[in-house]
Every structure is written in C-alpha cells, then in structure tokens.
Design brief:
Distance between the termini of chain B: 28 Å
Number of helices of chain B: 12
Strand content of chain B: under 5%
Number of strands of chain B: 0
Helix content of chain B: over 70%
Helix content of chain A: over 70%
Shape of chain A: globular
Number of domains of chain B: 1
Largest sheet of chain B: none
CATH superfamily of chain A: MetI-like
CATH topology of chain A: MetI-like fold
Largest sheet of chain A: 2 strands, antiparallel
Number of strands of chain A: 2
CATH architecture of chain A: Orthogonal Bundle
Number of domains of chain A: 1
CATH class of chain B: Mainly Alpha
Order of helices and strands of chain B: HHHHHHHHHHHH
Shape of chain B: globular
Radius of gyration of chain A: 24 Å
Structural class of chain B: mainly alpha
Radius of gyration of chain B: 23 Å
Oligomer: heterodimer
C-alpha cells in the first residue's frame, strides 16, 4: 500500500502534492482531535492524578509529585496482580486450545456454511455480556441446572461448589473471550495456501507432521493475535470475578474499581491503573519481540 | 470484543475466493470428529443465550430469576415495561448507542480513509493510538476517562458516557474502513479522474460507494459496542444507569425475568439487523 502511494507521489507535480497533504490533514483532524482529547489526554491526566496527595475529607487532592502513591498502591497488592496474570494466562490457553480445532474445521471444511458458522460463534455478542455472565451464575449455581442434577444423581457430594472458586471465574473468562481467539485463528488458517498443505502430503507427511510442520507454523499470526486479544483484556477484567467469584478470586480490576468508585482514593487508584497499563505494554512488547513484530500484531489484530 | 466483530466483516473480503477443500478420503473420520466438536463448541457458546430466552418465559413465583423452570408464561412479555427505572436504563442505552455511532462513524471513516491511502508525518503515531484504543484493557480506558472528568470538573452523566463511547468507537470504525480502503482497486478512481471527474465527484461516485460496506459495518460495530459496554460506562456514568449497569446492579438481589425479555428483544433485533446487512451486501455484489 505505502509503496504505491510513494511512487504515485513522485510522478505528481508539486501543487497537487501540497493539496493532497492539506486534504489528508483536514480529514485527519476531527477524528484525531477526538482521540487525542478522550484517549491520549486522559492517560496524561491519570498520570498527573497518580502523583497527588491529600484526601477527600482533608480538603481535596494536591499535586505534590507523590511517588509514594505507587509504593502504597503496590504494597500488599502483588497477589491481585499475580492472580490476574495467572487467570488471564489460563484463559488465553483455554480459549486458544478450545477454539483452534473449530477454527481449523470451519476454515478448511466449512464449505458454504463458513459464514453461517462464524456468525453462530459471534452470536454471544448480541447479548449484553453482563446478562451472559449472570446466566452462567444460574448454570453453575450450587443447586442449579448442572450441579443440582449431578448431586441428585449422587455423582457429586452435596457441598461441592463451583461458584466463588477460581474455576467459575476462569470458566466465565474463557466463555466471554473465546470468540476473540476463534476469529483471528480462523482468519489466519483461512489464509493458508491449500497447495502448500497438499505438497506436504505429497511428500509423505503424516497428518500430524503436516499439522505441526506446516499448518500450525503458518497459523502463528493468528495464534499471536488471539493470545493478545484474550490476555490483555482478561487481565483487566473484573465482572466475572465479581459475579461468579468470591472473596478469594478478586482480581486487580476489582481493586481498581473499588478504589475509584467506592473509596474515592483517586491517586492510589490512578497509580494502580498506570501500573496495569504499563505492565500490559511491557508484557505485550516482550511477547511481540519473542514471537512476531508489532506490525504483524497490528495487522493480525485489525486485518489491515 | 469488537476486534472480533471487525474480523467478521473482514472475512467478507476473502469469501470471494473459495479454495477447494482437502479431498483425502482417509481423513474422513478425523474430519467428522472435528465437525462434531465444532457443533459442541457452538452449543456451549449459545447455551447462556438459550437460557436467557427460556427464562423470559419462566412462570417463576416472585420477581426474581431462579435456576429452575416452573412452566411457560407470557406474563413477563406483557409486563415488560412495568419497571420505570429499567425502561429508562434501556432508553439511555439506545439513545447513547445511536448518537455515539452517528458521531463516531464519520470521524472514524475519515481517519480510516486517510490512513488507508495517504503517507503523512505522524501516521505511525495515529496508528499507535488506534491500536492502543483497541488493545488497552477497558478498565484502564474507563479509569483514565474518569480521571479526566474529575480533573476538568465535568458533571458525570449521559453526556460523559456519550463522549467516552465515541472515543472508544472511533478506532474500531477507523480500522474497519481502513481495511476496506486498503482492499480497494485504486485504478477505478484513477479511471474516473482520467474521464475528467473532479476529485470530489470521483470520490462521491466511485470511492464512497466502494467503501460504503466498511462504513456500514463500522456504524453497526460502534452501535453494538456502545450498547454492550459496561466497564467504561460504569466508571463515567455517575448516577445515570444504562441497561448493562442496571442489570449489573440487579445481580446482587437477583435479576427480574423482564431483563431476559429485554435481552431477548435486543438479541433478536440485533441478529435481524446483522442478517439484513449481510444479505443486502451479498445482493450488491
């Protein structure tokens, strides 16, 4: 894309070139300005807020370069950060493992039902995710549809429960993020040239070899996008932990939400949110360095 | 969630070429197994939806959903508008979703258009902001927006929800349109200009119709994102309630079956809208 524009540019006279640039900046301004004010500026304001000191009751917060907020914010909260990362990691693994076979089957054998099958995978998004999560609470309830039946049959002890355990929270996260993983995987597998796979078989590859040596490596951009699109949002999630979990499953999102909205301890809350954001940026760029490039991520994530 | 929906719109572009399936008779068993697995996965994905629809017809004693089916009733459909605060929450959600999509679509479209076809200074920075807007956890977006509104002493309410929803929708519209622009055959536009169309005429008669499916997809995407958003709205809403916020608040005491009715209505409307767009597009091609 870029190259065609560049070569085109070279062959044009100067006046038109200047006008093109003016048009470009004019078209860019409204959306760019909105994103600057409501996506970039808020992070700067949050950074500023995280360095304030004072309290709601003692006459408000004042900016004092209070770096100790970060120490306060992190003190005793490592558990929540760690738990969030472990839950999100398990979620990522779960979604990729569960959705890969289905994505593969739809891409290679879906035939004329491809679009319909993809649509059914997207169906959950037509229902508010709060409602979906609440329904899981009913499915997993101690005497609900699943556990109640199993207990009546005597297959499970009476006091067995899933709600308020990590199983319910990670299960809810896997459910809600599964389509995020399935679609990039599908797109990547769909793009694989069938001729290459046929070649592998012609060269006497077993099905397992064809998968591990040809199909899986070629689907890596999809795996990469799927893991990022699942891991990052799942780390900051708090609704599953709130609705399906209990006191022992609180994630960092629950802490940030409580500090902001109930305690109104804004500087500490802002510091926690900054740490979460930078943590995610560092982790994802390390991951990108290890597995792919950032360009690939962006391309895979947004399909450009 | 939305990057996912973006991916769905993107698959249309590749749907044109239909590669031959692998015809290896010896893999038939494995293939059937995978097909069955895919069916199970779909069932797993839709099970809470089926439950929601079912519980909208549940003749449950009392006002709260319980994990048991008592019998079929249409009472909750008859009394769906009984709760004034729930009605207001749904109305708020719809108003914000329509307005946010109407504002974010033109802003995101021009961005996507510029990113898809111009090289300019700052292009990488704009792409980076768009990527972050999509990739950063929602709780970070929500808390940073709340920080902004607190510092600027903006009163929290429907207006701050709207500002925030437009902000997180723009990147999604932009990438949807950008993908469409990138896949467009530019020689068509050149041909129009060779035939003495002025740039505006060439744009409105050639380019715009070509990227219109991307713009429609962007509009629907931001509508759905806004309607479904809980995390960011919860941060910037103050005392105002949207539908997801109302439902979340009700989970503590148990949700009334009318929530399932509202959920079912929105679900059916959304699915019909998406199908209508998809079929409309197919006819066009």
């Amino acid at each position: 894309m870029a190259t065609t524009v560049v070569s085109r540019k070279a062959s044009r006279p100067h006046g038109i070139e200047a006008r093109r640039r003016r048009v470009a900046y004019a078209l860019l301004t409204p959306g760019g300005a909105w994103m600057f004010v409501f996506l970039v500026l808020p992070v700067a304001v949050m950074a500023y807020m995280s360095l304030k000191s004072g309290g709601v009751l003692s006459g408000g917060f004042r900016f004092t370069w209070a770096f100790e907020n970060y120490v306060d914010a992190l003190a005793g909260r490592q558990t929540f950060f760690l738990r969030s990362v472990i839950y999100a990691g398990s979620t990522t693994l779960g979604t990729v493992v569960l959705s890969y076979p289905a994505a593969y089957w739809i891409a290679f054998h879906g035939g004329r039902f491809k679009s319909a099958l993809l649509f059914t995978i997207l169906l959950p998004y037509f229902v508010s995710f709060v409602i979906r999560t609440v329904q899981w609470k009913f499915i997993l309830a101690d005497h609900g549809l699943v556990l109640g039946t199993l207990k009546d049959l005597g297959l499970l002890p009476e006091d067995f429960r899933v709600l308020s355990t990590w199983v319910a929270v990670v299960g809810g996260l896997i459910y809600n993020y599964l389509p995020f993983a399935a679609l990039p995987l599908y797109v990547a597998i769909e793009r694989i040239d069938r001729a290459v796979v046929e070649c592998a078989y012609d060269l006497y590859a077993t099905p397992v070899q064809a998968f591990t040596k040809v199909i899986f490596p070629l689907s890596m951009p999809g795996v990469f996008a799927a893991t990022l699109l699942t891991f990052v949002p799942a780390t900051g999630d708090y609704v599953e932990a709130e609705v399906l979990g209990g006191p022992t499953t609180r994630m960092i999102g629950n802490i940030i939400q409580t500090e902001y909205l109930r305690q109104a301890r804004y500087p500490v809350a802002a510091a926690l949110s900054m740490v979460l954001m930078f943590g995610m940026v560092v982790l994802t760029s390390l991951y990108a360095k290890l597995i792919g490039t950032e360009d690939e991520t962006v391309a895979a994530a947004v399909g450009a | 969630m939305s990057a996912v929906l973006g991916a769905a719109t993107r698959t249309d572009a590749v749907a044109g070429r239909e590669p031959a399936p692998l015809r290896r008779p010896r893999f038939r068993k494995a293939r059937a197994l995978l097909g069955g697995y895919t069916g199970l996965l779909v069932l797993y994905l839709v099970s809470p939806i089926l439950l929601m629809i079912l519980f909208g017809f549940n003749d449950v004693p009392g006002e709260r959903q319980q994990p048991r089916f008592w019998g079929f009733t249409l009472d909750w459909y008859r009394n769906v508008f009984a709760d004034a605060s729930l009605n207001e929450a749904v109305r708020n959600s719809l108003v914000v979703a329509v307005t946010a999509a109407a504002i974010a679509t033109p802003l995101g479209t021009t961005l996507g258009l510029v990113l898809g076809r111009y090289v300019f200074r700052g292009r990488a920075a704009v792409n980076f902001v768009i990527f972050m807007g999509i990739a950063v956890p929602e709780i970070v977006l929500g808390s940073s927006l709340l920080s902004l509104f607190i510092e600027s002493r903006a009163p929290l309410g429907l207006f701050t929800i709207l500002l925030s929803h437009v902000a997180f929708s723009i990147p999604f519209v932009a990438v949807t349109v950008r993908a469409r622009v990138a896949g467009m055959d530019r020689s068509l536009e050149d041909a129009a200009q060779d035939l003495y169309a002025t740039p505006p005429v060439a744009f409105w008669t050639v380019t715009f119709p070509l990227i219109l499916p991307g713009i429609t997809a962007g509009f629907l995407l931001s509508f759905v994102l806004s309607l479904d958003d809980f995390v960011i709205s919860n941060f910037v809403s103050g005392q105002v309630q949207t539908f997801p916020i109302w439902v979340y608040g009700a989970t503590r005491i148990g949700i009334p079956p009318t929530v399932n009715v509202y959920g079912t209505i929105l679900f059916v409307a959304g699915v019909l809208m998406a199908l209508a767009t998809a079929f409309g597009r197919r006819r066009e091609v």
